[in-house]
Amino acid sequence: MSAFAPGLKLHDRYLLERRIGSGGMAEVWRAHDLVLGRPVAVKVLAGPMAADPALRAGALREARSAAQLTHPNITAVHDFGEASFPDGHAEPYLVMELLTGDSLADRMAAGPVPWPQAAAVGGQIAAALAAAHARDVVHRDIKPGNIMLTPTGAKVLDFGIAAMTGLPDAHGGWVIGTPAYAAPERLHQAAANPAADVYSLGVLLVEMVTGRRLHPADTWEQVAALHARPRPLPHLPGVPPAVAALIAAALDPFPARRPRAADLQRALLGGPGTGHGAVAAPAGPTPTLLAPTGGSISGAARVPSAPATRPYVPPPPQMAPRRRRTPVLGFALMMLLLLAGGGYVLFSAMRPADGDASPPPATTRAAVKPSRSPSPSPKPARPAGVAAGNDLLLDISQRAITMGVTGDIDPAHTGEITKTLTDLTLRWNLRQWKSVINRSKDFQKRLDDWVDDGSVGEDAGKELDGKLDELIDLADELKG
Fold first, then answer.
1. How far apart are CA 295 and CA 101, in angstroms?
2. Is 66 in a helix, a strand, or coil?
3. What is d(CA 71, CA 135) in angstroms, rounded to the nearest whole number?
4. Is 60 exceeded by the pLDDT of residue 377?
5. In Å, how far are 123, 241, 417, 455 from 410, measured between CA atoms?
6. How far is CA 43 from CA 245, 269, 362, in A?
7. How large is the average pLDDT for residues 9-31?
8. For 352, left (φ over 0), alpha (ψ -120 to 50), or beta?
9. Closest CA to 405 of 103, 117, 106, 123
10. Looking at 52, 87, 141, 158, which residue is catalytic?
11. Which of 129, 98, 122 is nearest to 108 (CA)?
């Protein structure tokens, strides 16, 4: 427990009334702002946590990160300070708006959330994340306990372990956060990336509508084992197929292939049965709930350089998952084909390794599929350049899915885009480099025309045009 007590006045302004919650790292108090005459929440590091320099710095970082974000779906931060006590020690505190309602964790404990409500909650979380990401702030601990359902809508709490985009993900050797909602790249301490928040939101959306945990894990070791054996996305009751494809893309193990938070916001809040209004809390009393209590340090895993026991140690880079076609990506691509209605079948050699659709065992490489020629020798592996082109074509397909769902691409063009990408993939794997170059340039001209007539957004056109430029350059290089 902290040294805070009822009746304590902070800087002659905030009068503590009662403690309304506590967690592994922090306590939250209800207080009264004597200057502005309003109730507020005061968050303070709990007991020994206040003496940790890294956590004290984190408290200030939380204040600065959240204070620069003014958004209706983000808890407002009012003030930050340190309280001094007679024994000479000081404890930092954060003053924020006092929220009423229930946490998303409480709502999910009552059972699955109907899709219209889940879409509204998810869309508002996505809106908050989009605002944070626009300021290069990555939350890094999106989970049910950090979302409040208030009369004015969903609120994202707890920027205590937030980081600026590109900064290191570890805190003095600790991986901090909630393992079951952490993106795979966080296990390798990749630099802070907005895509990690998108992954966590994808997990939340799946759990809301299914009523079951997507990653039933409580430790970093357990979740690392689950990520090493990816499973198909479960059935999402009530979710439109196009949005289900976007959620699947949010759970892609490769950050670059995930949609942006803004894409999810538009898809979730733009469909039938969703909206920007308040999200109703479950029936019953409306208690005053906690402001954020922080990502629990007990849920973190230390990563020392020479472990004596068995803490979580990120695998070396060569052990990172290889880029291969996963069930999630396969599902997303099939959704694009279904939306197009063109009946095209992607050429079987879209990925660098031939063979069955099922992934190879974790400890061995996938066996090479025998050649169809009379020769009994196996087909040689494709060169790295061909593999890179297949990855790029898959990226283009993935972005086309997202843009179609968010309205950046007119649905009238979906069939033509699908046909073109299927044809490019076929010709790419047949090594028809000149044909790939010519058809990619034709596709770029069509994109320009669609941008001119307004049926494709300007930013979407530029992005796809840039990816096609990469494909053309790679084909030209392979053509020699």
1. 21
2. helix
3. 12
4. no
5. 22, 17, 11, 5
6. 39, 32, 45
7. 86
8. alpha
9. 123
10. 141
11. 122
The rounded distance, in Å, linking the Cα atoms of 126 and 189 is: 23
Tokens of 407: 């309205």
**302 bridge partner residues:** 174
The region that residue 140 occupies, defined by phi over 0 for left and psi between -120 and 50 for alpha, beta otherwise, is: left
CA distances 399 to 335, 339, 394, 403, Å, are 13, 14, 9, 6
Going by C-alpha positions, the residue among 209, 177, 206, 208 that lies closest to residue 190 is 177
Amino acid at 403: M
- The per-residue pLDDT for range 246-303, each reduced to its tens digit, is 999 999 998 988 999 999 999 998 743 333 334 444 333 333 333 343 333 233 343 3
Q: At residue 302, what are phi and psi to the nearest 5 degrees?
A: -75, 140
Domains and CATH numbers, the chain: 9-97 (3.30.200.20), 102-168+175-302 (1.10.510.10), 336-346+383-479 (no CATH)
Give the amino acid at 390: N
Inter-residue contact 290 to 30 (CB < 8 Å): no
DSSP 367: P
Greatest Cα pair distance in the chain? 89
| Contact criterion met (CB below 8 Å) for 94 and 43 | yes
Nearest CA to 115 among 222, 225, 240? 240
Instruction: Note the helical H segments in 83-240.
Output: 104-109, 115-134, 194-210, 220-228
As a 3-state breakdown, the chain gives helix, strand, coil percent values, each rounded to 5, of 45, 15, 40
Cβ neighbours, 10 Å, residue 354? 18
Q: What is the DSSP letter of 11?
A: T
CA 155 vs. chain centroid, Å, equals 17
Is there a catalytic annotation at residue 141?
A: yes
Q: What is the pLDDT of residue 30?
A: 94
pTM of the model: 0.62
User: pLDDT (tens digit, 9 = 90+) per residue, 137-187?
Assistant: 898 889 998 999 999 899 998 776 777 787 766 555 556 778 899 999 888
Report which of 309, 316, 299, 324 is spatially closest to residue 188, judged by C-alpha positions. 316
CB 246 within 8 A of CB 259: yes
CA 28 – CA 26 distance, rounded (Å)? 7
**10 SS3 class:** strand
